Amino acid sequence: MADHALQLVDDPRPEGRTRALRRLTRALDAVVAVNTDPHAIAARAGMLLRPVLADAALLEERHCEPAPDRYRQHLVHVHPEGRYSIVALVWKPGQATPIHDHLCWCVVGVWRGLERETTYDLHSDYGASYLLQRSVVETGPGDVSVLVPPEEDIHRVENGGTELAISVHIYGDDISVVGSSINEQFADDLVRTRSWSQGTVPVSWRAGSPAS
Fold first, then answer.
1. Is position 127 within any domain?
2. What is the CATH number of the domain that holds 44?
3. pTM attached to this predicted model
4. What is the pLDDT of residue 128?
5. Helices (DSSP H) in 74-178: which residue ranges?
6. Predicted local distance difference test score (pLDDT) of residue 72
7. Is residue 64 part of a domain?
8. Residue 209's pLDDT is what?
9. Is residue 210 one of the residues assigned to a domain?
10. Do 6 and 180 touch, CB atoms closer than 8 A?
């Protein structure tokens, strides 16, 4: 769920123009109008996103354009009061996000292609931090995942196939203002093999304490 490669737009708070996006944003507007609990909003957003992923006309062609050298983010829609943003992330084969975590709730649905998510746990040994791989999950069209901080979700997302991959991300913040949902990145050289660990337990990078 990363987005450092922001595709700038003329309208800082664009509106989704396709029929499917208009239906989705009307429903999301109704959810955030009556609810402030991020867990409830994210859960409902995931339910609303899943069926629209089957619509072949969900995104405009301009929001499906990749970048030649890295994954690309297109800001598709921002709530008028910045309560949420919808972003299209586009990967060519071989492109990936940095290892990162998020500042706000987020819901991700794969629209085209295959994506691979590798998750990590942060460990600390005598003050030295390192990452151990937790899992690798491949997702395809129609698959939806939900994250609500402060739950730890240190991960990397990449194109897991041989064709273009596109996913739709709903973030609980105004991406036109904050620029990205990422609030922490982790260097690749922090990754260690499981056998390298000396029995340490995961810690939270947010609090510097053992993760729950």
1. no
2. 2.60.120.10
3. 0.86
4. 80
5. 175-178
6. 96
7. yes
8. 43
9. no
10. yes
Distance in angstroms (rounded) separating the CA atoms of residues 50 and 29: 17
Structural domain including 73 reads: 6-117+137-184
CB 31 within 8 A of CB 84: no
Q: Give the DSSP H/E element, type plus range, for residue 21.
A: helix 19-34
**Is 24 within the bounds of a domain?**
yes
pLDDT of amino acid 200:
65
DSSP state, residue 150: T
- If you ran DSSP here, which 8-state letter would residue 202 be given? B
9 pLDDT more than 50: no
Q: Which two tokens stand for residue 199?
A: 């029995």
Query: Which residue in the block uniquely carries the two structure tokens 């890295």?
Result: 70
Confidence of residue 3 (pLDDT cuts 50, 70, 90): very low
C-alpha–C-alpha distance, residues 80 and 145, integer Å: 25
Q: How many domains does the chain have?
A: 1
Distance CA 1, CA 171 (A): 9
